[in-house]
Amino acid sequence: MFDGNTALGFAAVLAIILLSSKLLGLLFRKIGIPQVLGFIVAGILIGPAIFGDFCGFSLIGFEGKGYTSLFVLPQSGEMSDFLSDLFGREVTISNGLDIFAKIGVLLLMFSAGLETNLNELKRTGVAAVLMACAGVAVPMILGFAISMPFGGIGLGFAQTANIFRSIFIGTILTATSVAITVSVLKELGKIRSKLGTTIVSAAIIDDVIGIVLLSVVTGIARAGSATGNMNGFDAFKSTIYGTIIMIVCFFVFAFVAGIGIHYIFHWLEKKRATTHRIPIFSLAICFLYSWIAEEIFGVADITGAFLAGVVLSTAHRASAYADSKIEVCTYTLFAPAFFANIGISAIHFTGLNGEIILFALLAVLVGLIGKIIGCGAVCKAFKYNWRESAIGGVGMMARGEVALIVTSTVTNATVLGTNALPEKFMIMTVLLILVSSILTPILLKLLYSDKPTLHFHRRSGKYGGHSHGDESAPEFPEQID
């Protein structure tokens, strides 16, 4: 066994991830499936999900898990016994792969922000808001409804704690992770389209609504528990009114700071729009916005990264140059680490029982259908055709790190006491991430594929083709192989 968290050990881990993900990515692309699916499957194969848990050996694994791994990483999320931050909070341990994956998702969202057309966003603003609201409401109602018959596993109406847990199930199903959708839209050249802009915008708004919703339900649950031990600023942010105030304050901050950044980058753009200082400064703003969003205001870091990109997108030449440089770095190194990490660390198939599996499968089904119905119906109401409405629904159904964050929050017995959701329900989230991560790229690829319809030309006596899809050339035709 080798330590995978040392400098050279982690370099070897990255080498395994890059080789396996790119080979499988190219294979999947060769058979018409988006590369990101290959990245996730690569993570499953080199991680412990199959070979580690069932065969006793994996290429990359985690310490203290009962299997042998060639490269061992520390288990992330454990609390340090001796570290604390400036506010006196305990610091969780992270391995190098999780850090790379986090940077990967931030860069994906930042790149999506850079490519956002604000004029198009204004035209899709109402649609995006209503799409996000429907994408939260429908899955939550369905999640709560399917929990009612499962009193045997701690859900339903049997007692107050069970009702809270059923609400938590619905809250988990509301989460949306747009990173996979963004990657597929970029690969298909649709990220700048009106529908693509609507999907990304709705996913960001969905994230904000999800944070408020999470604060509301956990705040109510915490009010009836004597185990809440937060104090000071953290206690304020954990309240319903505190969360709402902080979210509003963050968007005010992002807007005010964005005005200054806008003028600075326009000045840099006039001097020289294609110099290396542009992408360097852009990355600095991306990471600062992400940190400030998460640590200061309690807003998801991916929201900060996306807004940083939106702010910089107003300097058109500078943002285009920055995106061209950052995109190569993202898809060469950090994006494969992010997608492979889903398969390595978030997916396990052991420790299951029949009732949990049945409920998890049902929850996955309604979680996917809820997004498609809710978001697709809004798209249809805004005069999109049936295929575009299906794309809108499918584009919102992917789950990832946001769902895991919500699940870890509602399973935190230290904060929620007896109202907390048992940790065994994490398998539901894992399956939801796995299924949605696999289906979203495939379905988007199929829905965007232009299948020609043959028409008979009377004069020539021959059949000719006509495409009913988006006939515009892809805006990003160049693929990174």
Structural commentary:
By secondary structure, the chain is mostly helical. It is built from 18 helices and seven strands. The protein has a three-stranded parallel β-sheet. The longest helix has 32 residues, at 240-271. It is globular. 48% of the residues are buried.
Biggest β-sheet: strands ordered side by side in the sheet: 1-3-2
Shape: globular
Q: SS-based structural class?
A: mainly alpha
**Can you tell me the residue ranges where pLDDT is under 50 for at least 5 consecutive residues?**
79-87, 451-481
Helix run count: 18
Beta-strand residue percentage = 5-15%
- Write down the Rg: 23 Å
Distance between the termini: 32 Å
Helix/strand order: EHHHEEEEHHHHHHHHHHHHHHHEE
Approximately how much helix is present in the residues? Answer: 55-70%
Question: What's the main sheet like?
Answer: 3 strands, parallel
Task: Estimate the mean pLDDT confidence.
Answer: 79
- The number of distinct β-strands equals 7
